[in-house]
Amino acid sequence: MTTKYENPSQIELDIVENVLINVYDPEIEIDIVNLGLIYEVKFDGINQVTVTMTLSTPSCPLGDSIVQDVKESIKRKYSDMEVVVNMVFEPSWNHGMITPEGKRMLGMNN
Amino acid sequence: MTGLQTANAPSASIVVPHFVTGSLAFVVATILLYFSVDEWMTLYFSPKLIAITHILVLGWGTMIAFGALYQLIPVVYETSLFSENLAKITFYSYTLSVIFLSYSFWVASFSNLLFYSSLLMFFSLLLFIINLTWTYRIRTKNNIQSRFISTAIFWLALTEILGTLVALNFKFPFLNNSHLHYLKIHAHVGLAGWFLLLIIGASSLLIPMFVISHQTNDSKLKFTYYAINIGLIGLTVNWILFNYSYLSLLFGLLILAGIVNYLHYIFKIFKNRIRKTLDSALKLTFTSLILIFIPLLISLVILGKNWNDVLDSHWALVYGFGIVFGLISTIILGQIYKTLPFIIWLKIYQPFVGKFKTPLPRELYSEKILKIQMYIYLTGFDILLSGLIFKQIIIIQIGLIGILVAAVLNLFNVLKIVFHKLVLRQVQQPN
């Protein structure tokens, strides 16, 4: 099977830096990349992207919406790709995972 | 996928009527309080004040609590509500019974209308309890929060049984003690058993979620759970069987220890929170928990005394208003904006998430109005409390005007959320 994507790691980086950075947690109001919810983005080099991510709390009532946002946002740019979201709660999310930019947005002292 | 609860969320048509009716009841109760102040400041347990108290605790507090609980069930129990149809029937039956019950108190129809409206209230609450109990049986999660909420529902049932017995006693006298004696038990079981446990159960789940704080300690919550419940059981049994002042003080102190322990738990969450900037809804929530000290301090002073003397003084009003306006109403005025916008947002925007740029849940209401409402409400409450302490009717009325303005602003904001119209913007294609 051939692919039009020659550089898988470039695709993964693009998804994180240009796509998922525009997906927001509707309550916390910070994008899920700077919030540290994205653990891994893996492109198989053919047509499947697997996003391994978590939520700020397992009880998050808007979890499904965030997952849907992740899938739709990736498909909007890479319409021929299959997007799989792997939701994990181990390791559990903690504030150490927030990026310096995320901390600034939350009003935290670094 | 564990933890994803959107699929279990109830229909907005179940939740929304509770928030609208409750907010309307708050406006009505405040207007009635204003115009009947001369009567209830002369006779502390006047029929009109009992009517307004029931509008406040049932029409406002419990009505919003029902709506919020239907919404919280998927998060707390990790399952969907047992029956949405039963919830709809419960809403209509419950609303009617609040209207009839309050009216029967207002016109002092203790032997006729009160009897029938109490039975309707009993039936309505029974439907609610059946629905929640069955939901509890099919839950997939067992945590301390679900235990708080389930026990709160048990105390609600006991409150209702006691209330119905007192209402029956007006028509068919069979109770030995005065009504005031049973009223005291009825009120405390309702306030400490139903409202307090519910507030602790729900807030211990929601507050860490909204301020992003993971420094939670379940063993502290367990201590609070047992201290309040054992204290309340002891207090109730003592009041029914013995009525010893030292036992009242002992069990009262146990409840107090549970509450103080919970406040310490919340303080740790507040201190370790990641989200430093608090919106008005969260400010109101934290303020309500500080305001709990007003009735707590009063209860410490009066617990060792003869309750019948206390109930016959204006301190009973300070105590009761401190709980209803200080704790219950303040936390509701905050938490409405942490629950209602989400169910409406899910209903309107869920199908468009990721395909269009959607507003955030907080953009469904006016934060500016909420902020104004918060300051007016808290100022109004302070003035009201001062008026009650110093028995000054004009000051009480000024305070009530402030609370009324806040209640109207709240109703406006609630309706703004409920009638929100779809707003979609095209998403800019990432490069």
Task: Write a compact overview of the structure shown.
The complex is a heterodimer of chains A (110) and B (431). Chain A has 110 residues and is of the alpha+beta class. Helices cover 31% and strands 16% of the residues of chain A.
Structural features, described:
The complex is a heterodimer of chains A (110) and B (431). Chain A has 110 residues and is of the alpha+beta class. Chain A has one domain (8-102): Fe-S cluster assembly (FSCA) (GMP Synthetase, Chain A, domain 3, 2-Layer Sandwich), CATH 3.30.300.130. Chain A has three helices and three strands. Chain A has helices at 8-19, 63-77, 100-106; strands at 38-43, 48-53, 82-87. In chain A, helix 2 links the parallel strand 2 and strand 3 (82-87). Chain B has a domain at 1-141. Chain B has helices spanning 12-35, 37-42, 47-77, 84-106, 113-137, 144-171, 179-211, 218-242, 245-271, 280-291, 293-303, 307-311, 314-335, 340-349, 367-389, 393-418. The chains are: A alpha+beta (110), B mainly alpha (431). The interface between A and B is large, with 40 and 35 residues.
Labels describing this entry:
A: alpha+beta; GMP Synthetase, Chain A, domain 3; 16% strand; B: 431 residues
